[in-house]
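CORE FACILITY INTAKE
Project code: CF-77B
Contact: R.S. (postdoc)
Sample description: multi-component assembly, two entities in total
Requested service: structural model of the whole complex
Turnaround: standard
Below are the sequence entries exactly as provided by the requester. Do not edit them.
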Amino acid sequence: MTKMGRLVSTLVVITSAAWITGCSSSSTTKQAAMPQAKAVDPAIVEQGKQIAFGRSKGNCLACHMIEDGASPGNIGPPLIAMQARYPDKAKLRAQIWDPTSVNPESAMVPFGRMQVLTEDEIDKVVEYIWTL
Amino acid sequence: MKKILISLAVLLVAATTVQAGPEEDRMAFIKYYKGKFPSVPRDEYANGAYAIDPIGRENWEAIEEFPPYEPFIDRGQEMWEKPFANGKGYKDCFPEGPAIAQNYPHWDREQGLVMTLPLALNQCREANGEKPLKYKKGPINNILAYIAFQSRGKVINVEVPKDDPRAMAAFEEGKKFYFTRRGQLNFSCSTCHVQNTGLKVRTEILSPSVGHVTHWPVYRSKWGTVGTLHRRFTGCNKNIRAKPMKAQGPEYRNLEYFLSYLSNGLELNGPGARK
């Protein structure tokens, strides 16, 4: 019973942590922009982060480890070094818009094709992910 | 990652070849999971995600020391013993009962459908002038819990009779359902429980399909009560933003037929407790 109680409280802590991280509007990720990268409005990046973390929006943390995101899943690879791996932003956008166009067996949600996110929301998510 | 995708492709091919029968499908699943979890013994699959998640298992074992489903078993026993208004009771419908869970689901030739235990219970009630019970929540779980408890240790042995093509068709329908992507999030059951078994969605480790049917009804902490297998189907369908089917409608009964066949040879161990 005590064990159960402890389990529940741990879960509460985890959930509220996720909630706080998902909703804090202050902590914009600071990262040295790559020399040729055009500066993007930090507000857009922050909005992209909100969308990516929101459980009823991108919920990317369900499957990906992302810097300072609480309780991530591991169905997809960790989202790190994105600019290095996706020098072409359009490719990154395509992966998010419809991962099955890249890999037909993909277990990732086709966020654009299935209209889980709007085009505008996807643009913002791309800007955020590209800062990782 | 690549290896997993290849073995998945092999599984899919094995599972969709024309000559393949239910037994070939079952063996393909078992082989696939064996490749993923070489150290997990066969019988362990009856424990779902806890067969492959040592941390979750510890919590689960602690919970099982004071099983949260116990009061429901007791209430179910009362239901089983208590006569209907006409003086008859469940005992008259199921003379070999209450340890009967291993007989379901089965192909019902006369009615030409997959007969599940909840459907059989309600047909018994209606034949005796009683109102049918709801299929997802409520008292049906009590009597199911009692029957499950009495049936512990019996071995699952679902048959798809070869001499009735309708049975094979029902099995195939269930299988198709399992592999078809649906909902706004575009998942099939197999996306999570085959392709990504053992990986985590947030903090939940995805369980293998083999073993999915051994332990119903389940007390879920999330529900705060016991619920039926078809309630779980509904939940998994809703999570991917797909419109759930009707509990005990043909789609979910055929799905149960397919899914139960995969657990052939495993012992029943219901009722269960899950997160």
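Facility notes:
- Confidence is low (pLDDT under 50) at residues 1-36 of chain A.
- Residues 2-23 of chain A form the longest helix (22 residues).
Invoice: internal transfer
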